[in-house]
Design a protein that fits this description.
heterodimer, A: 175 residues, alpha+beta, Alpha-Beta Plaits, 4-stranded mixed β-sheet, 7 helices, 6 strands, B: 905 residues, alpha/beta, Rossmann fold, Dimethylsulfoxide Reductase, domain 2, 5 domains, 6-stranded mixed β-sheet, globular, disordered N terminus, 4Fe-4S (chain A), 4Fe-4S ferredoxin-type domain-containing protein (chain A), iron-sulfur (chain A)
Chain lengths: 175, 905
């Protein structure tokens, strides 16, 4: 069953500023719902634009990974453990980080795992949730959990080095 | 230059310098570029980078949030820009937009890259060397507009205004440029719709009427989508409006998406089933599905009988021969699969819909393919139903079909009259070649009343202008070369023909020839290949610096309007195009100026929107308006005829069509159904023209054989002539758009280019094996001319050869080679050229921000200098000009080619 909070209207950003309490989740985190990701790069480009990240560095990168033995692709947004900051400016004015706000399909959602009834809290109860890295394991301030992550993608993500873009991404050109 | 300009420029410059200093330090410390695209290699590098990221952040509390309309592609989503210190720092979705629902894609933020691009056009320029030599000098606006006006004025005064030819690539001024060309008196306001979407618009307008050149599937509520070659997850006019709706429908409600394509797109990847079909066989599959639906009794017979113009028994007999087994032989899709999908589609009705786009339509047989696809919706009766194939009006608000009760929004008066048609006996008619005069003389009156010469209304392609003027843009340059129309001044506006037209080398040849085009004015925001062949270049304001009215068909099924407004002042001396045309009109004079009597563009647009029920400041604050109490656009056809249309109306006893005569003109306004006067569809019959006699009529007038499938009044399938006897070494060369790019207009957006900057020749693994190549190998692709009724058809010489590198893509159709068409620019500055800083035409005389350019250049990690691929390969010269009969849509995806390996030296 779908989460009713998904359909709650998002406030216009200009209404949010100065009127909403800062977001200060007890357990901040991202839910990456791979059932919804369309590989569009909106999150990555929004992040790089607002943070004026120079070319060559990706705090968040969208990967197109060829399905093994298949004819199509799986899309996976991957956070850089080092370069992703917490986008405190957005949280301070009560908004999700810019990457999550840019996601057109709600594949990338920021929230509080600890909040009762929240999208993240509910998602955590689902059987197809995988946590790849927690606050203890990386420098990321947030937890990142993936929903509907194929086994083979999870294996790659956990290997870290296997995500070196040089040989993994057959469509998008890499250095 | 105003103070504002000055301060804005210095702000930008300061930022560029600060960024340069930070990055220079970081590089010296060891490492940013060496670890590009991965993690910083050392803690010091990382700290440096984080410091830089933090120091340049947007402070939301200080910034203004201003709504506007995106111009990153043709979808035009409502967006909000965050403006701080005179710069737009982030663009995100406007949640008040009922169409985009507050979503954006990566291209929205490309507008910032475009606006702040260091090599952007900032001043008017006049060429000082031979045309195309790239030598320019900066001139004043007075000098530039004065010279253009002096060249245009005599054409108008001497009664030859048609020798002013205006052609645009991306004009979303909602008719402002037409105000200029109409006031001048030229009918030649040309575009390039034929290389985009005319062959998918014509079938829709044939079926549903002029008001519906685009559909609005209710994907939010659908259970089943049959997608023939559409790619809404990446590139599709309206795709942005479907992404969230479709993914929600799939994930939350289990809706099914089935895609027929020739390569594994993002849409194919998120589909429940993806089939790699033989190119140009979509129509065969659709007809076989109709066969199954009729055979299984899955049709909505009542809907068909009520609304279709085609007798059910005749239709059944027609589709009986298109069996799934036959379709398998055409498409490569197993008959059992076609049968299963047809049954699933029929079972889901009416919460099901078809989807199609260029993949099905941009073929010699594409118009009939789309008619066959559209027929499936009529057959199962999903038209206008929740979850079905819906229609929501697209154009400006002028009390058109489906807009009853809405405030009328329109350009401020006084609007100029449109030019008069070139009827026999007029001076312009006499300029036509005898055989063209003969053809036009034989045209029915309805076409004689709309004929404006061979550039605007090519007589061989009457269906390119029967519904409205879609033009045949790829034939403009050949026609000028052949002397079909004499040009004195050619003005291109945001047009990339010299780079992106099929046979782009022909476009360049004509643009470079001063005997064919004596004077060329290019208006654009960036110095591209088209501007490089101009005599005067004028800098346009970007989408973040300008006003435009906006309306679109709404996939949320409720008419809405929005306003594009400036977030920042134009940089340098750039001016919004409306101001350029206003000032030109005043300089030309002779009465033109009366249509441009405004000083401030905001005043002009306030007047345009004066009938909105909200005040102007509220509209600017929200950026969007719609009536949220208005019922959704379901079953518009079943709504009662408006009382004012019933006054004096008469019913045709044979057809039930209601006619009203006004000012001597008889117009169908509705149709009687079960004793009720309902609106029906805005077609001449008020029904859906599944049978449409316009096709054989048009064929008859242009000498097209009635045996050609394009001439058929009923949806049919005819194989692309050059695909009939493909040799074992022949392949089909196609082209496509990536999700981060927008035609040839985005290669210089730095974040887009970083993600996609090249355009390798993609092929299936088995194709690579046959050719004996692997990823990275070089190949030569040689293309040949079409064999149907087309420009230079059947000539045996190759069109051209392009050398490219191979990329193996599992999931591609093994007969297809695909190259994206965004890459390989030789102008548009250092980012578009993949870091190539070699002196090019564009660099000299440009008002470039040199430190900014050098800094940007240093970051291009994919440049050849740094061992990368560079900016890709120019490919558009090898795609033959191939306008399909009657409508003139470019058959982009029919090209037969051969491929040979370039052996290593």
């Amino acid at each position: 069953m779908s989460d009713p909070t998904r359909y709650a209207p998002r406030p216009a950003p200009y209404e949010a500023v100065g009127k909403r309490a800062p977001l200060a989740p007890d357990r901040p985190g991202f839910l990456v719902d791979l059932r919804r990701c369309i590989g569009c790069h909106a999150c990555s480009v929004a992040c790089k634009t607002v943070h004026e990240v120079e070319l060559g560095s990706f705090p968040l990168r969208v990967r197109w990974l060829p399905d093994p033995g298949g004819d199509t692709y799986s899309f996976v947004p991957v956070f850089s453990e080092s370069l992703c900051t917490d986008d405190a400016e957005s949280l301070a004015v009560g908004m999700e980080p810019a990457c999550a706000r840019a996601c057109p399909t709600d594949a990338l959602v920021f929230g509080d795992f600890a909040a009762a009834g929240s999208l993240l809290g509910l998602a955590e109860l689902e059987s197809d949730i995988r946590r790849l890295a927690g606050p203890d394991a990386t420098d990321l301030k947030q937890e990142v959990v993936y929903r509907a992550l194929p086994e083979w993608v999870g294996a790659k993500l956990n290997q870290g080095a296997a995500l070196d873009p040089k040989d993994e991404d057959p469509i998008y050109e890499q250095r | 230059m105003t103070d504002n300009d000055q301060s804005r420029k210095s702000i930008l410059r300061r930022d560029f310098l600060r960024l340069s200093a930070t990055l220079a330090g970081a590089t010296a410390a060891g490492s940013l570029l060496s670890c590009a695209a991965t993690e910083p290699s050392s803690p010091a590098a990382r700290d440096q980078l984080l410091e830089q990221v933090r120091s340049t952040r947007l402070n939301y509390s200080r910034a203004r949030a201003v709504p506007t309309i995106c111009f990153g592609c043709t979808t035009h989503c409502g967006v909000i820009g965050w403006v701080e210190d005179g710069r737009v720092k982030l663009i995100e979705g406007n949640p008040l937009d009922p169409n985009s629902q507050g979503t954006i894609c990566s291209k929205a933020n490309g507008l910032i890259s475009a606006t702040e691009y260091p090599e952007r056009l900032l001043y008017p320029m006049r060429r000082v060397g031979p045309r195309g030599s790239g030598r320019w000098k900066r001139i004043s606006w007075d000098e530039a507009l004065g010279e253009i006006a002096d060249r245009l004025r005599p054409l108008r005064e001497n009664g030859t205004p048609e020798r002013f030819v205006f052609q645009y690539g991306r004009d979303k001024t909602k008719g402002f440029s037409k105000r200029f060309t109409d006031a001048f008196g030229t009918p030649n306001r040309l575009n390039r719709r034929s290389i985009c979407s005319s062959s998918r618009r014509a079938p829709l307008m044939s079926f549903y009427g002029r008001d519906f050149e685009w559909e609005s599937q209710d994907v939010e509520n659908t259970q089943y989508v049959l997608n023939f070659g559409g790619n809404p997850m990446e590139a599709y006019q309206g795709g942005m409006f479907m992404r969230k709706r479709l993914m929600d429908a799939k994930v939350d409600r289990g809706a099914k998406l089935v895609t027929f394509e020739v390569r594994p797109t993002a849409t194919a990847s998120v589909s429940d089933e993806y089939f790699a079909v033989n190119p140009a066989s979509d129509g065969a599959i659709a007809l076989a599905m109709a066969h199954v639906i009729v055979r299984e009794g899955l049709e909505d017979r009542d809907f068909w009988d009520r609304w279709s113009t085609w007798d059910f028994a005749e239709m059944s007999a027609h589709v009986a021969s298109f069996t799934p087994e036959w379709a398998e032989s055409e498409s490569g899709i197993p008959a059992a699969t076609i049968e299963r999908l047809a049954k699933e589609f029929g079972a889901a009705a009416p919460a099901c819909c078809t989807m199609s786009n260029r993949g099905s339509a941009k073929h010699y047989n594409g118009m009939q393919a789309d008619r066959a696809i559209r027929m499936l919706d009529v057959l199962v009766g999903n038209v206008g139903k929740p979850g079905g194939f819906c229609l929501s009006t697209l154009r400006g608000w002028n009390n058109r079909y489906g807009q009853d009760g809405l405030p009328v929004l329109s350009q401020p008066a006084p609007k100029p009259a449109s030019p008069s048609p070139w009827k026999p006996g007029t001076r312009q008619f006499e300029t036509l070649a005898p055989e063209i005069q003969e053809r036009v003389r034989n045209f029915p009156q309805m076409w004689q009343d709309k004929y404006f010469g061979e550039l605007a209304t090519p007589s061989e392609y009457p269906l390119s202008w029967h519904w409205y003027s879609m033009r045949v843009g790829q034939l403009v340059y050949p026609y000028i070369k052949e002397g079909r129309h004499k040009v004195d001044l050619y003005m291109s506006y945001t047009l990339g023909a010299a780079y992106g037209m099929p046979e782009a080398n022909l476009a360049r040849e004509v643009l470079a020839d001063e005997s064919l085009i004596p004077f060329h004015v290019a208006i654009d925001i960036n110095y591209g290949e088209q501007a490089s062949l101009a005599d005067i270049v004028l800098p346009d304001a970007t989408a973040l610096e300008r006003w435009d009215a906006h309306s679109n068909n709404n996939y949320g099924l409720r008419p809405y309007t929005g306003i594009r407004q400036p977030l920042v002042e134009p940089l340098g001396e750039a001016r919004p195009a409306q101001i350029i045309w206003r000032d030109l009109a005043r300089l030309i004079g002779g009465g033109m100026e009366q249509h441009f009597d405004f000083e401030d563009l905001e005043d002009y647009y306030r007047e345009w929107y004066k009938n909105l029920p909200i005040d102007w400041e509220t509209f600017k604050r929200d950026g969007i308006w719609y009536d949220d109490k208005r019922p959704l656009d379901y079953e518009l056809y079943d709504r009662a005829v408006l009382p004012e249309h019933l006054v004096g109306a008469e019913t045709d006893p044979d057809t039930g069509v209601l006619y009203q005569t006004k000012g001597g003109k008889r117009k169908a306004v509705g149709i009687m159904q079960d004793g009720r006067a309902v609106q029906g569809f805005p077609t001449p019959t008020r029904r859906i023209a599944v049978y449409d006699p316009i096709f054989p009529l048009a064929a008859d007038h242009v000498g097209l054989s009635l045996d050609d499938g394009n001439a058929s009044p009923i949806p049919t399938y005819h194989k692309v002539p050059e695909h009939k006897n493909l040799g074992v070494d022949d392949y089909i060369l196609t082209t496509f758009k990536w999700n981060v790019h927008t035609q040839g207009r985005s290669a210089y957006w730095k974040h887009a280019a970083e993600i996609v900057h090249t355009n390798h020749a993609m092929m299936a693994p088995e194709t690579a094996v046959r050719l004996g190549v692997v990823t990275g190998d070089e190949i030569d692709i040689t293309t040949y001319r079409p064999k149907g009724v087309a420009y230079r058809a059947n000539e045996s010489d190759p069109v051209g050869t392009v050398r490219n590198r191979v990329r193996i893509i599992p999931g591609m159709h093994p007969r297809v080679i695909a190259q994206a068409h965004h890459a390989g620019h030789w102008e548009h500055g250092v980012v578009a050229r993949g870091g190539d800083t070699a002196p090019s035409g564009g660099s000299s005389g440009m008002a470039a921000n040199t430190p900014g350019r050098d800094e940007l250049s240093r970051q291009i990690w994919w440049s050849k200098e740094r061992g990368g691929t560079g900016g890709g390969v120019a490919i558009n010269h090898v795609y033959p000009i191939n306008a399909a009969p009657l409508v003139g849509g470019q058959s982009w995806f029919d090209n037969v080619c051969t491929v040979s390996r370039v052996d290593a030296v």
